[in-house]
Amino acid sequence: METATIIVIFVSSLLLGITTYSVYTAFGPASKNLRDPFEEHED
Q1: How many CB atoms lie within 10 A of CB 43?
Q2: C-alpha triplet 27, 32, 35: angle, nearest 5°
Q3: Alpha-carbon gap, residue 36 to 15, rounded angstroms
Q4: Per-residue confidence of the chain (43 residues) as pLDDT tens digits?
Q5: How far apart are CA 29 and CA 4, in angstroms?
Q6: Contact between residue 11 and residue 17 where contact means Cβ atoms under 8 Å apart
Q7: What is the predicted pLDDT for the residue at 35?
Q8: How far is C-alpha 39 from the geometric centre of its chain's CA atoms?
Q9: What sections of the protein cross the membrane?
Q10: How far apart are CA 3 and CA 41, in angstroms?
Q11: How confident is the model at residue 25, as a pLDDT?
Q12: What integer pLDDT is reported at residue 2 of this predicted model?
């Protein structure tokens, strides 16, 4: 494979991994421990 193809595959895999981890953190089992500052304050 050419170097450019390998770089594109690496960057794409990295972005997909970061996105997957972010979605898992936001909506997965650990999300119950996250606090929402907007729900803590009454208007």
Answers
A1: 3
A2: 100
A3: 26
A4: 799 999 999 999 999 999 999 999 888 887 788 788 887 777 6
A5: 38
A6: no
A7: 80
A8: 23
A9: 7-29
A10: 53
A11: 86
A12: 94
